[in-house]
Amino acid sequence: MSSVHNARADPKLEKRQKGQSATWLLPDRRCFLRGALCAGAAGSLQTFAQPLNAIPVWASPQGQDDAPFTVEARFYQKLPNRKIKCKLCPRECTVGDKERGYCGVRENHGGTYYTLVHSRVCAAHIDPIEKKPFFHYLPGTMAFSLATAGCNVNCKFCQNWDISQSRPEEVPAQYAPPQRIAELAGQYHCPTIAYTYSEPVIFSEYLMDTADAGHAAGIRSIVVSNGYMQDEALRAAYGKMDAVKIDLKSFSESYYRQVVSGQLKPVLDSIVTLHGMDKWMEIVYLVVPTLNDGDTEFRDLARWVKTYVGVDVPLHFTQFHPEYLLKNLPITPVPTLERAKQIADAEGLHYVYIGNVPGHPAENTYCPKCGHMLVQRMGLEVTQMLIRRNACSFCGQPIPGIWHA
Amino acid sequence: MRHETITARRNFLKNCLASAVVAAAGDGISLPEAAAQSLTLSKSRVVIAQDAQLRGLTPTVDSRRMLNLLDLAMETLFRPERSAGEAWRKIVRPGQLVALKVNTLGGRGLSTSPVLIDAICERLQEAGVRAGDIVVWDRSTEELERAGFHVSTAHNAIQCFGTDQLGYEDDLVMYGSVGSRLSRILTEQCDVLINVPVLKDHDGAGVTVALKNMYGAIHNPNKYHPDGCNPYIADLNMLPEIRSRMRLTICDATTACYEGGPAYKPQYAWHYNALIVSQDPVALDTTGWRIIENKRAAMRLKTLEADGRAPGYLATAADRQHRLGTDDPQRIETVEVGLGAGEQPYVKRS
User: Fold this and answer.
1) Based on the structure, what is the number of domains in chain A?
2) Minimal CA–CA distance to B236: which of B277, B284, B183?
3) Residue B54: which CATH number?
4) pLDDT in tens, A59-78
């Protein structure tokens, strides 16, 4: 599961509200006002909601018909006896006829594998891009953010488990084809479409088609992902992305096995591949007390980042809040996050942030050369921007990122 | 704070109360009791009731012979009770809500037979359960229909529909490796759970019989297939909402599957023409495994172990942490009974 960062800063922004129909619909007041301001709109609720009314709503799962959302999957291999092997993620599920893979959103029909979530949006919001978090990519802008049900891992700390760990027919959804998403993003003056909340790996076909539709309309695509993906699928799907945020959930295989139900090695491979593809990338590490908060692990992580993707890739240490299957652990103490940052700083990383702690100085961006604060943030808001022409306005040091549209 | 925290507490109390009521109301042996007994004193009895003439000369099951076969199975399981009626009254009482969990993944070819369900419902009503208090259910209404069931939600008739009609509980229930939302049919319309699975090979778990059929009661079964479904199957069946309600398993082995399961593949299905009945689901699954292995040997297929998918979940279900029943053949009393051409019963013990 992804998109843990900053959710606690304003939970209503990040979490899908239970019991509602697809929640795209009415952003909370704060988000709405910001979006309306961004759009230069008059700010009336009706103005905001009206275009969405054109989309059919399945307010309850029972009303859903799979047919509009069922599209042949792009990454799988046919096997004898009407079985298939999924080639989307490293699990490589072998799936018999009428069965689904681990993700729960792909089904074998007579030896052909289908995704059941193409255009099946169960959550959508207009979010500040800082919430993903992207700190070096179009700061201060809004992202048209969406998700379908399903996930290819099962993180015990997942904040959006009610959609990520559900089958698509179990959550209310709306039919939102790629072209419509691009139109909506344009209407709300969002320069980006963000694939987030659940796990975009499992809706890759929809992501790819929507990215194409967005690009045709001049809108970029960004993804918030666990990176647990096979190489071919990664290159094909995330090759269409303009920026990628990877949730690196730990730097230990045992943690991945026990807490995430996944593997570390394929995620590291994905990060290296994305770096080689010249994608703007940021990495988030959710610090869970007692489980992945050791000095050695922080140090190994920082050294790996420095060696394989370089010191300029932003690394966010974010605060854990008890959720889902890990309600027995406390919130990550701020000193633990500060210790992680100190270790990563000492290893020479230039942009190490602390997340989910609104107002903490480590939310800001500082020039690695002269030390001046260049971007000041308060929670999800950018309150000061002192980067000019991609460089420090004090000393001229280039600051990596995509700072302007 | 999320609102479900309050709901969780309320549901916890509700479930505790429900469990207590179920435990107090039954004058028969509940499943946990039977399983516990099997671990201490007595053997767990598993009855295999077979009728070679179940279909006559047609491909379909004869409803009269099915009813007779069910009676024979129940009388044998609960012997020394004298009649099937007495046996049923050990399981259910008037006023209780009875849920029959079927398995309909395999379509018409390899699902719980509606003829068997009709027979069970007939005996339940004779035992005093109102028709409207019986629900036949699985995960999906569409799959039920595909398997030949008639969907019904009329209050005074036997109800039949999938969890998709009622949905799942909002709150997670957890045990060990499992964290899931349970079907509202189970939590809201069931005092007594009767499990009516199918005897099948399974590409992950090795076999799917009684215990794995409970995957159809949760919202996220796809998460519990790695590692041969172990320990997930055992952990799932430990959930109090399942364990406290489960009284009996009647496995439909009229058509069974020895390879290529759990989906229906005609080339790997055979007419075993049997019902397998027990109150110990681990013993029943162990017996089902043996039957499938015998068939595989007859068909010159590798054993499940040699195929890398021996059902390891059975040992977990029987271990000290779970105690769901016994997987020890020495502690399973298998009673094979059958109806000959003239419907004269025979008995064979092992």
Assistant:
1) 2
2) B183
3) 3.40.50.11440
4) 455 556 888 899 999 999 99
Q: What percent of chain A has pLDDT over 70?
A: 84
Write out pLDDT tens, residues B148-161: 999 999 888 999 99
Which residues on chain A are in Cβ contact (under 8 Å) with B263? Answer: 82, 96-99
Does one domain contain both A213 and A296? yes
Q: What is the spatial distance between Cα B44 and Cα B334, in angstroms, rounded to a whole number?
A: 8
Cross-chain residue pair B220–A104, CB shorter than 8 Å: yes
**pLDDT tens by residue, A162-190:** 999 999 999 999 999 999 999 999 999 99
**d(CA A133, nearest CA chain B) in Å:** 23
User: At CB < 8 Å, which residues of chain A contact B?
Assistant: 18, 61-62, 81-82, 91, 94, 96-104, 154, 156, 161, 165-167, 169-170, 261, 324-325
- Model-level ipTM above the cut of 0.85: no
Same domain, yes or no: A268 and A232:
yes
Average pLDDT value for chain A: 87
Q: Cα–Cα distance between A62 and A49 in angstroms, integer?
A: 24
For B4, the closest chain A residue by CA position comes to A18
Residue A401 lies in a domain: no
Closest chain B C-alpha to A111 CA, distance in angstroms: 12
Report CA-CA distances (Å) from A275 to A268, A313, B123. 11, 9, 67
Evaluate the omega torsion of the peptide bond into residue B59 and state whether it is cis, within 30 degrees of 0: no
Q: Higher pLDDT residue, A51 or B82?
A: B82
Chain B: residues touching A (Cβ < 8 Å): 3-4, 105, 107, 164-165, 167-168, 170, 172, 174, 179, 203, 219-220, 222-223, 225-226, 260-263, 265
Which domain range does residue A75 map to?
A: 71-115
**A85 and A24 in a common domain:** no
Same domain, A88 and A194: no
Are A98 and A189 members of one domain? no
The pLDDT tens digits for A339-385 are 999 999 999 999 999 999 999 999 999 999 999 999 999 989 999 99
Q: Is A267 in the same domain as A250? A: yes
Among B230, B232, B138, CA closest to B179? B232
